[in-house]
Design goal:
Length: 399
Amino acid sequence: MSFGTPPPSNEQPEPAPEGGSGGYGYPPGPPVPGYGYPPGPPIGAGGYGYPQTAGPNPYQDPPQQGVPNPYQDPPAAAAAPEAFPEAFPEAFPEPFPLSGPSSTEPDWEALSERAAKERRRKRMWAWGGAVTVLALLAGGGAFLLVSGYGTEGEDDKPDTTASGSPKPGTSGTGENSALVAGDPTVIRDLSGSSGLRMGEDASVVPLGGRHEVKMRGNSKSYAQAAERVVDTTKSFTVTARLYNLAEKTSRIAVSQGDGESFTFELGGDQVNGKLTWMFRVQTGDKGAAATAVTVAAGPAPKKDRTTLTATYDAEKKTIALYVDGKPAGKAEQVPAIWQGPGPFQLGRARHHGLWSGSWSGSMDRVRVFDTALSDEQVAAYQEGKLDSAVKPSHSWLVS
């Protein structure tokens, strides 16, 4: 081949015969069934991978009557639509009833019977409660009659032992309360009008048919009047029944005065290391120890009831002390008793402007007479035989 000479031409292939496959460069004719092409109508028995003729397809679910194919378009509008079957062909059953058969009409007879039973039950409870209250009241009344509460009993009689302190004459009022009505902090004055207001640590408690005031021996255990009760410029007698719990130091049961010093004090003081009964008065207005006069008795017994009685005779200018109705020590001469300021006291005394001698124990049957009882009258008082004409001007804790 030389330059510029056209290439030799090749003959074109003949057209493919009809009915065969298209040759190279020719469009194909109808495809012959083979690998990769969809099969035509099966000829004879189905080949490998094709369902058998006139037999079910093992890879296909059996047809379901009346269920549409979800992968098939809906039927044409020309076709008559078939009604969609109900998802639940049967209706749900009625729910179980929560209660028995109901009725629009209430059972009046049952309601009436129930109300009658309730009324009978309430009446029975009411009658039972009333019977119980009556039984308790009857029992309480019988107890009061047997115990003698509210009446003068054995405790009102003279006590012949060393711990006794009697009720003098007819001055006692055993049926009355020991406290002021409506105020449990004030001890009632049964012979006068001077109530004694108690401190926080003082209390009145029953003692047989009477009452006593208990004190704890501290600065809050006391009782005091609102004013002076004893006129120390005149004759007087002070008496009290004491229950002592102390063995040493000063313990004052009764006194008067709240200024620089007491005007008088009755109780116990320490002598030679022991608590000794004493009655002391102040004769000077300075409250000095040098101007105090004392009458002392024997040792004060512990845990025993003792009646102390102190007298001042303004005419004779003498002071005296009695223990359980008997003279104790020696009567002392005094120029006079200083009338200091301040009210009547139980359970403490004033010394050098301070409270001291807090009583430890209890006391009752506290009385004041506006006269100096004689030896015979003091003994009669102890035995409960004092003349009824001799009356106290003040009395506390005798009921």
